[in-house]
Amino acid sequence: MTILETERLALRPYTQDDFDALYEILSDPETMKHYPKPYDAKGTQRWLDWNFANYRDCGFGLWAVVLRETGEFIGDCGITMQNIDGEQLPEIGYHIHKKHWRRGYGSEAARAVRDWAFEHTPYNCLYSYMTSSNTASWSTAASAGMTRVKEFDDGHYGSMYVYRITREEWKQLKK
User: Fold this and answer.
1) What's the CA angle centered on 95, arms 7 and 102, to 5 degrees?
2) pLDDT > 90? residue 127
3) 4-174, which class in CATH?
4) Which residues sit opposite 64 in a β-bridge?
């Protein structure tokens, strides 16, 4: 079941069959350099289980991103509730397999998820947050119309940037 489509991508709920492709992404040291460490098999399964619970409890989560042309799984993107500097906020998150970096897939998926969230949820603001050194991630947030609204030290990852777009800003983008 596809949740949404863009020109090049389809986003759909994860299935257990996505484990191997997801593990390839989450276990890669380069891809996960902004996390404490790459995920092992148990961590990857926890990631899937967390998203299965999000689908059930929230009606959304991170979705598998696949290329429409080939059906190849290339990453994930979606909405999850995250603790951002002490507040539970709806966050657009994304991870793209490194062999597909610099092709605009993350930005394309993030913009589509942003639109879906404003069309299907009551949230008046959407957020993305990342380590301040994660240039690719904050560039993706900016390409989705978000602006940096905060920097804080989370005591774990260090300096974090928070990006946000309001429903009103989104409406202006859509004109």
Assistant:
1) 60
2) yes
3) alpha beta
4) 12, 76
- Among the residues of 27-69, which ranges form H helices? 41-58
Cα separation of 92 and 129, whole Å? 8
Q: Are 170 and 114 in contact (CB under 8 A)?
A: yes
169-173 contacts, C-beta under 8 A, 24 or more apart: 169/145, 170/114, 170/115, 170/118, 170/145, 173/145
Angle 73-93-109 (CA atoms, 0-180°, nearest 5)? 55
Model confidence pLDDT, tens digit, residues 46-95: 999 999 999 999 999 999 999 999 999 999 999 999 999 999 999 999 99
Contacts of 67-73 with C-beta under 8 Å, sequence gap 24+, read: 67/8, 67/9, 67/10, 68/5, 68/6, 68/7, 68/8, 68/9, 68/10, 69/8, 73/18, 73/21, 73/22
How much is the pTM? 0.94
Residue type, 29: P
